[in-house]
Design a protein that fits this description.
This protein is α/β, with parallel strands linked by helices and about 550 residues long. The chain has helices at about 5-20, 35-45, 55-70, 80-105, 115-130, 155-160, 160-180, 195-220, 240-245, 245-260, 290-300, 370-375, 420-425, 445-460, 505-510, 515-540, and strands at about 225-235, 270, 275-280, 305-315, 325-330, 335-345, 355, 400, 405-410, 430-435, 465-470, 475, 485, 495-500. Helix 3 runs antiparallel to helix 4. The radius of gyration is 25 Å and the shape is globular. The protein starts with a helix and ends with a helix. The relative contact order is 0.13.
Amino acid sequence: MKKYQLILLSILSGLLLAAAWPLNGFCYLIFIAFIPMLWIEHEITKNPHQHGKFSFFLIAFAGFLVWNVLTTYWIWNSTKAGAIFAFLLMTFLMTLVFNFYHYSRKIIFKGNKAYLALILYWIAFEYFNLDWDFSFPWLILGNVFATHPQLVQWFDITGAFGGTLWVMLVNVLLFEILLHIRNKDKFSFKLNNKFLKTSLSCLLIVTLPLIFSLFTYYHYQEKGKATEVVAVQPNIDPYFEQYTTPPLEILERMLNLAQQKTDSNVEFVLFPESALQEYIWEDRFSFSPSVNRLRYFVSAYPKLAVITGLSSRRLLEKGAAITAAARDYPDEKDRYYEEYNTALLVDQNGVLQLYHKSKLTPGVEKMPFKKIFKPIEKFALDLGGTIGTLGIDAERKVFHCKNNSNVSPVICYESVYGAYVSEFVKNGAELLFIITNDGWWGNTAGHRQHFSYAALRAVECRRDFARSANTGISCFINQRGDVLQRTEYWKPDVIRQTLYANNTITFYVKFGDYIGIIALYGGLILLLLSLVKGFLLKRK
């Protein structure tokens, strides 16, 4: 094939991947989306003398760039430079994965099929991308099923990486079927016929997970204690109104909305991330007008607890270790403090409970590789709260309430991380509440994708979710991943729902991203063997 034809195939792969993505995509396209990319690799491997050393890298780069731009273009609304960097970085890493596969196939497998290498490398990349300074796991392949949770009820066993494994297996098997057709291999019902074996394998891998999932979906019953929850969407403009309106006026708007649905039976009212617009020192909560107003509101209802987001500060002890988030305290030499993106619970007990967001947004709440990029930290983007590198909590906290419910707040970006969210459940959370501020991306796919991923977390953990967004989509989601209620974008609203506080632990919650861990170590061993053998062959 000519080079321009290979480039077109690469772009086709990127278009199919983008067309499969939530919310308006057709997710089933994901099962054929990698076939053009596999075809390119196959052609270059079979005809290496017709292509330059970096041909496959450059050709594959085009397709992955198309996918990244078309699915995460909304980053541009927040930061143009950050968007370009994210597009190029994620494209480079994805392209590198396919080139590792291409290299291992030539060196270890001598041109024969090496699909195991591809699957290991891809899942290892997704797992690695969960926990490094530029972490951006938005395009984990398993996320593509966010709007069709009925197809992946087995995520409570595997998590989203099980979806990635499913997608990759179906793609390679369908590609093998195409190769059989291209080579005019004869199909017969003899047991040793390779065409038959490939076709049966593909049929089983497609249908068995679907059958299991649909059976589970239609037979699943909500578990736990019934709990009345109210979620508020105040719709405060994050670019202008948020900074010019007095904090107590913003709070009163939210309380007026909450009162429309709150009565003596309601146990939780949920306000969004950065709802309280004061910067509050954590040892001075009793002096905060906003916190005191919430205490007064809660006192009127016998069961009620309020969970809200705010920006808080804490002065470090004298002589304490200087953390990566430490900032100079202006009123005293050699003193430091940390700032946090915080979730606060106010209930009848009077004891305030805090959780500090710990999966921080790169470039917004955390300066990646701070020692290198420290000089540009002051240019960090303000997307709804405290900016610059923030302090974090060492554990996933659970709020213990007077009404005997154990709940955990999940702040914004944290809801994209399956195993991270599952740690709240492992620590005892029976309900999960997402608080977020999604208005920064405008009415684009960004806030809709973010909203949709919560359904996968519900299935993985078998927990009901309430979601309060300042400007975005607020909703309730049950343990099957069904969206029970949702609000419209850019519209003040309040919704109420009976949720169920479940205390059972799923296999996934217990064991986490074990598929990712296996792939990471397996991929590293295979890559190391490939590099060593390649080095030895070059010496010979």
